[in-house]
Design goal:
Helix 1 crosses helix 10, helix 4 packs parallel to helix 5 and helix 9 crosses helix 11. Strand 2, helix 2 and strand 3 form a beta-alpha-beta unit. It is globular and about 60 Å long. The strands form two sheets. It has a nine-stranded mixed sheet with strand order 14-13-12-11-7-10-9-8-15. It has a six-stranded parallel sheet with strand order 3-2-1-4-5-6, with helices on both faces. The protein has two domains: about 120 residues, NAD(P)-binding Rossmann-like Domain (Rossmann fold, 3-Layer(aba) Sandwich); about 190 residues, Dihydrodipicolinate Reductase, domain 2. The protein is α/β, with parallel strands linked by helices.
Length: about 350
């Protein structure tokens, strides 16, 4: 079967991981790369395998008839225009998180994709991690009953030692703690608890006094409480100014048991010791490095869906847009000090 040809927009840290993951699927290959700086095609091809053609003219990516999918790994504030242009060109789309930094742009993106009837994949790849695939299975099998409280928290100090710090400190580029990084935690919580019936959010934010993080133009720690239509409650902390090892915290409390990271207790499973957690043999989400992200698993799911003419399983632009709507409401709440109702 013919491989799917992918053109990449942006050649930075995330793009290098995307290219290797796409090529590793065996179903697709990166054939084109747009970069604002001139690249050596021979060096690019040798590094990633296969023949890759680079360009400094963005229109070349949209107009190439051989490109089936455009993968957008540029700065977040560039995503909206690029998604709209890709959709109008009839290209299927992969796009990094956050989708965008403004709700008005989110509406433009969803409208363009819907009109063009192209397929989309948003890089909320945590849903495809071994940990969250395992947790979702435990939940779906009813082992912890009906979840009434859940929290997923993102702790990752994004300082000068980290790749995106250079631009992430700017409000116009990073947006907020939730948008720049904590969106993974928000999306993961919504994935586990269901993201269609959040009716209200309330959020507060603050920032570290450490000089390392003083260049940030926005609050770097936020805590958001979510109220679901059926009365359930969720909590997301996004902390990008911490000095500690990376930690993606998960705690779900249900009517028949609980989950804590890669541990669980279930009253439905025989005679488990209620005083001890049982351990799930699964790899934790424990790194912010793009080389450790489960991109390949997600991209395989996307390419399989494309070949079948179907939408991406639960990380399409429509799914991710709902997560972003809740994030925008949370940031509005933190800015105004008032809870925000969600339609």
């Amino acid at each position: 079967m013919k491989k799917i040809n992918v053109g990449i927009i942006g050649y930075g840290w995330a793009a290098t991981a995307h290219i290797d993951a796409i090529n590793a699927t065996g179903m697709a290959q990166v054939t084109n790369v747009y970069s604002s700086r001139l690249l050596d095609d021979d060096e690019l091809s040798t590094r990633h395998g296969g023949r890759i053609k680079s360009t400094v003219n963005l229109k070349d990516i949209y107009s190439d008839p051989n490109v089936d999918v455009i993968d957008i790994t540029s700065y977040p504030y560039q995503h909206a225009d690029q998604v709209v242009a890709a959709a109008k060109a009839g290209k299927h789309i992969i796009v990094e998180k956050p989708l965008t930094l403004a709700k008005r742009d989110l509406n433009r993106m969803t409208k363009a994709v819907k009109q063009a009837k192209v397929k989309t994949c948003v890089c909320f790849e945590v849903r495809f991690s071994a940990e969250f695939l395992t947790l979702k299975s435990v939940i779906d099998q009813g082992l912890v009953g009906k979840i009434h409280y859940g929290e997923v928290d993102y702790y990752h100090g994004v300082g000068p030692w980290y790749g995106q710090y250079r631009w992430n400190v700017k409000k116009e580029a990073g947006g907020s703690s939730l948008l720049s990084a904590g969106c993974h935690a928000m999306d993961a919580l919504l994935y586990l608890m269901g993201n269609k019936d959040v009716v209200e959010v309330s959020s507060h934010s603050t920032k570290s006094k450490n000089r390392i993080f003083q260049k940030y133009e926005y609050d770097t720690t936020s805590v958001t409480i979510l109220k679901f239509k059926d009365g359930r409650i969720g909590k997301v902390a996004s902390v990008i100014d911490c000095l500690q090892p990376y930690y993606f915290h998960t705690h779900l409390v249900g009517s028949e048991g609980s989950i804590l990271d890669n541990k669980f207790y279930s009253s439905k499973m025989g005679a488990l010791n209620k005083n001890e957690w049982s351990t799930l043999a699964t790899q934790l989400v424990d790194s912010g490095d793009v080389s450790d992200h489960p991109y390949q698993t997600q991209f395989e799911a996307f390419f399989k869906a494309l070949r079948a003419g179907k939408e991406m399983p639960h990380t399409s632009l429509a799914d991710a847009a709902r997560s972003h709507e809740i994030i925008f409401a949370a940031d509005q709440s933190a800015a105004t000090g008032k809870s925000v109702r969600i339609k």
